[in-house]
Design a protein that fits this description.
membrane; Multiple resistance and pH regulation protein F; transmembrane; mainly alpha; transmembrane helix
């Protein structure tokens, strides 16, 4: 029961940056919103792994948390450079 409430609260918190980025046309705002969603998703995975006592799911959450945002920020930088030229 508590896990369900925590997950619902986390999902609602995950939707806030997406709504803000949807209203703005700036590419950096959109990329930051996606990075925020990736971070919050990995935190949700870690919470689920702690409640289920499954360390393999936790390892996946840590990999997403440590590597996932780097590729997204690199993509945002490439898109910004392409728009400048």
């Amino acid at each position: 029961m508590i896990l369900n409430l925590v997950l619902i609260a986390m999902i609602l918190a995950m939707l806030i940056p997406m709504y803000e980025a949807w209203q703005d046309d700036d590419i950096w705002q959109k990329m930051l919103a996606f990075a925020s969603v990736a971070t919050k998703t990995s935190i949700m995975i870690l919470v689920v792994s702690v409640f289920r006592d499954d360390w393999m799911i936790g390892v996946v959450g840590v990999i997403i948390l440590s590597v996932g945002n780097a590729g997204l920020m690199l993509l945002a930088h490439v898109i910004k450079r392409m728009n400048e030229v």
